[in-house]
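Deliverable D5.2: sample structural annotation.
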Amino acid sequence: MQIKQLGQGLRQSGSGLWSCFALGIAAFVIAPIVAVVWLALHPTENIWPHLLSTTLPRYFGNSAILAGGVGLLTAVVGAATAWLVSMYRFPGARWLDWALLMPLAIPAYVGAYALVDFLDYAGPVQIFLRDSFGWADARSYWFPQIRSRWAAILVLGFAFYPYTYLLARAAFREQSGASYEVARALGSGGFALFWKVGLPLARPAIAAGAAIAMMETVADFGVVDYFGVQTLTTGIFTTWLEAGNTGGAAQIATVILMIIFALFALEKISRRNSRYYQSARHARPVIAQRLTGWAGVGACVICLIPLLAGFVLPVAVIMSHALANPDAWFGPGLGRALWHSIVTGAAASVICVAAGLVMVYGVRLSGRRLPRLVLPLTTLGYAAPGAVLAVGILIPLAAFDNRLADLILALTGYDPGLMLTGTGAAIVFAYVVRFFAIAQGAADSAFGRVSPSLPMAARSLGRSNGGVLGSVYLPLMRGSVGSALLLVFVECVKELPATMLLRPFNYETLATRVHDQASLENLGDASPPALLVCALGLLAVAVLARTLARRS
C-alpha cells in the first residue's frame, strides 16, 4: 500500500501543468466542431426552411441510401472473407489474409475514376461488346448507367470493406475452438457453423466495422461528386461555394454531425459489447479446416473478388494511363503538388503525434476526472467529415486572420497579408483535428505497454515528468510513434474535401490534383498523382499488416 501511494505521489507531483496542456490540446481539437454548431445556430441568413422544403430531403435521402447500401455490402463482404481466411486453409489463403487489406491503400475517389473509365461507353468493356456483337452505338444495346448511386455503393463498399474485415477477422480468431467442435459433433456443416456459431459471436465486431464504413460514406466527397450523386457533403460545397451562404452550409454540416455521432455511438456500443469470455484458462484456438478441390477454388475466388474490385482494377486502370502518358510525370504542377502534400502532411503528422503524446501523458499524470472525460471527445474529429471541419475552421480562422493582419498593419505599417488562411496552415490545422484520434489511440496503446515500475524508478531518481517522457517512455515507444507518424501522414495525403475547401488560390496537393484532372476527364494527367497517393497508402497498409502480425 505504501509503495502504491508513493507511486501515485510521484506521478501526480508537478502534473498540473501537463493537465493544462492536455485540456488545451483537447480544446484545440474540439473547437472546429463547436464552431460548426455555433454557426448553424447563429446564421447571418437563415435558409433552414428553404433547405427543408427543397434540397435537404434529397441530400439526406441519397446519403442514407448510400450509407445503408455500403454498410450492408461491407458487412457481407468483410464477414465472409474474414470467415474464410480464419476458418479454412485453401490455395492462396495465407497471402489473401493480408492482401485483403490492400484496398485501404486506394482512395475511394481513385476507384470511382477507374470504374468509370473501365465500364463507360468509351471504356474497354463496352468497346469489346460493340466489336464482338456488331453493335453500332449505345442505342443498339442496354448497359447500366455507371455514374449512379448503385455504382457509388459498389465503389465505396469495396473501398471500405477492410474495416469490417479487420474487426471480424479478429473476432473469429478470438473465439474458442471448442464451440465449433461441439457444433460439428452435433452435425453442423460449414454454413451452419457460420450462421449459428460464428456470426452471433462476431456480430458486434461486424456491426462496428459496418458503422465505420457508413461514417466514411457519409463523409465522402470525391466519389459522389464524380458520379453526380447529391449528398449532404456535396450540399455543403453547393450551399457555401455556389450560393455563398455559410450559415446554410453550417446547418447542413450539423445534420451530418448528428448522423455521424449516431453512427459513432453505434460503433462504440458495438465495441463495448465485443467481449468474449472463455471458461477455461487456456482455451483451445480455432483449428482451420483444409479445403480441397472445387471448395478450395471457390473460397479463393470469393476472396479474390473484393481484392480485384477494390485494389487490382483501380491500380491497373490508373497504371495503364500512366504508361500511356509518360509525359504526365513531368507535367507542370505535379512536383509542386507533391511538395505541398509532403510539407502539409509531414507538419500535420508531427504536430498530431506530438500533441497526442502530450495529451495522453498529461491525462495519465493528472488522475483527475475532467481530463479523462475530455479525452474521448478528441476522437470526434476523426468521425467528422473533412467538409464539416472546413466549415468550422475556415470561417473563424479567416476572421481571426484578418484582424491579426489589421493589427500588425496598424502597429508596424507593414501588411503581412493572410498568414493562416492564405497559406497551408489552415490545411494543417484541419489535418490535425481530423486525424488526431489515430495519434491519440497509438499513444494511449503505447503508454499502456510500458511497465509502471520504469517511470516510477526514474522519478524516484529525481527525473522530472518531462524527463521521464523523454528518457523512459519515448525510447520504448519509438515503433508506435513511427507507425503513427506514417499512418497520419498517409491519411493527410489522401484527404480531399477539407483540402479543397481550405487551400489557398492556386494551391494544389496530390489529392486535389487527382480530383481536378479527373473532373476534366483527363485521367492521363490524373494518373501520376493517383499512383503516388496509392504508393504511400501501400506503405501504411504494410505497417498495419506488420503490427497485426506482431499482435497475433
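Annotation notes: The mean pLDDT is 84. The radius of gyration is 25 Å.
The annotation will be released with the project's public dataset once the embargo ends.
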